[in-house]
Amino acid sequence: MAAYALAHLYETANHPDVFEYIERIQPTMDPFGGRFVVHGTMPEVIEGEWPGTLVIIEFPDLDRARSWYASPAYQEILHLRTDHIPGSAILVAGVGPDYDAVATANRLRAAAG
């Protein structure tokens, strides 16, 4: 099942280190099957507030997403971004093609008593 690395970057920075990070990130993702789904686009906020931008990288599964983030190749370049752009990053498992929101609602309803 697909998994995603999401980064909520609170602000942007036009810094040489950030440009280098962007240039070097794809080769760190390739061995783990990572691909950008969203990158460098300002989100359209339709509810609440969302300062900054969003990056979403898809991986074949959560284990490969974790392995990419912990890899020496990615750890070597990570500071190029984090030194200049504050933000948060998470890894999350996706749902499969047979996901049923109604079944989820029923499970939650039953668990709530």
TrEMBL record:
It holds the Pfam family DUF1330. SUPFAM superfamilies: Dimeric alpha+beta barrel. Residues 3-95 form the DUF1330 domain. Gene3D superfamilies: 3.30.70.100. InterPro entries: Dimeric_a/b-barrel, DUF1330. PANTHER family: BLR0684 PROTEIN (PTHR41521:SF4), PTHR41521. This is DUF1330 domain-containing protein. The lineage of its organism: Bacteria, Bacillati, Actinomycetota, Actinomycetes, Cryptosporangiales.
